[in-house]
């Protein structure tokens, strides 16, 4: 991400561009982009202004679901908002996509380090968006002991901001995972029998 940031101007620009490239049919308003790309209002205004100017994104009005608390329940309201969408007619779309999507958004060593304080992680597998396989069951598999789900989810949100896509994941305690492995659990086998990359393996999984 650091090299691409220097090449394309800023790391914030890279994160925003990846968000649009990996979600080409979706529309995003300012709040969505700030939340998902972890950029602030000033950075968003600057980068969106530039991306609009070169024709990478285009303005789009759309209807968005807004959650509002009503006592103990949550009510979903429809609201018309202004935002942006990827401009598929952008003349350099394919080469830019190849550059940003084929690059490694987060180094594998960094991913391992980020999960260090989430519990005793023993097995980490990357698939899906990390290896450009959209049909994978999950993007990331995390196995360990004393795992703190909230901490794991916070790490995943930070990685999502750099990857540009909401991640699907599976989280297992070691004993549960090994049992599933021993009985050829379909979900686990679907992850391990298809393309994936082990970046941490303290369980010596074949």
Give a structural overview:
The protein is of the alpha+beta class and 206 residues long. It has a 4-stranded mixed β-sheet with strand order 6-5-4-7. The model has no long low-confidence stretch (mean pLDDT 89). The chain starts with a helix and ends in a 5-residue tail after the last strand. The chain contains 9 helices and 7 strands; from the N terminus they run ααβααββααββαβααβ. It has 2 domains: 2-102, Orthogonal Bundle (Arc Repressor Mutant, subunit A); 108-201. Helix 2 packs across helix 4.
Write the layout of secondary structure elements.
Elements: H1 2-8, H2 11-22, E1 27-28, H3 30-37, H4 41-54, E2 57-70, E3 73-86, H5 93-102, H6 108-114, E4 120-126, E5 140-145, H7 149-163, E6 169-173, H8 174-182, H9 186-192, E7 197-201
Parallel strand pairs: 5-6
Antiparallel strand pairs: 1-3, 2-3, 4-5, 4-7
Amino-to-carboxy terminus distance: 31 Å
Structural class: alpha+beta
Q: Can you count the beta strands?
A: 7
Over the alpha carbons, how many angstroms does the gyration radius reach?
Answer: 19 Å
Average pLDDT score:
89
The amount of helix comes to 40-55%
Low-confidence stretches: none
